[in-house]
Amino acid sequence: MQALPCGPDAVVADVGFGGGVGLRPLLDRPDAPTVHGVEVSTEMIKQARATFAAELAAGRLRLHHASITALPLAPSLLDGIISVNTVYFVDDLDQAFSELARTLARPGRAVIGIGDPDAMGKLPFTRHGFRLRPVADIAAALDRAGLTLREHVKLGEGRIPAHLLVSTLNSRHRASAGDDRAAGPAG
């Protein structure tokens, strides 16, 4: 979470927040930003509404029931995006990362977290609906979407080491025609 911008005017998102583990640290940061949570699972949205009722009531958190491939967020709305363990369930990674790039403002950051694909491939549950990709393929998809990999952090050496891919918009990504932050849906 430290890789994302913070401050009272920052707008960040956890895309594919699942059980909400990433939402809490974003909301608990000093000078907490406005946080958007995007999740495709109706059950996880329901759970987050109960868990984060105070943050929702205060307007610090906005929840969106949507897929990473069709984000209900305005262009250039976000200063930072995290998405952890979502790429396993996305068929069209180019579309997903294009959506992240579309919603990201300059000089914002997108942080993609994944378990090490070689380690994940040895786990029995990944044979059921998981799409494991080499880290290089994920980095290439980021680049095709207009996101330049700035940092590749390898975490842990346990059962499932992790990778954090930190990227920013590159010069090939077209800039927005203006600041569209106010145009985003309230969700």
List how many beta strands DSSP finds: 7
Which class best fits the helix and strand makeup? alpha/beta
Examine the coordinates and then state which fold CATH places here, giving the name of the CATH topology. Answer: Rossmann fold
The amount of helix comes to 10-25%
Principal-axes shape call: globular
- Percent of residues in beta strands? 25-35%
- Biggest sheet character: 7 strands, mixed
Total discrete domains = 1
CATH level-1 class: Alpha Beta
Radius of gyration (Å): 16 Å
Average pLDDT: 87
Main sheet: strand order: 3-2-1-4-5-7-6
**CATH architectural category:** 3-Layer(aba) Sandwich
The parts where pLDDT drops under 50 for at least 5 residues are 176-187
Order of helices and strands: EHEHHEEHEHHEE
Name of the CATH superfamily? Vaccinia Virus protein VP39
- How many helical elements? 6
Termini separation comes to 23 Å
Structure in words:
It is a single chain. The radius of gyration is 16 Å and the shape is globular. The protein has a seven-stranded mixed sheet with strand order 3-2-1-4-5-7-6, sandwiched between helices. 36% of the residues are buried. It contains six helices and seven strands. With 187 residues, the protein is α/β, with parallel strands linked by helices.
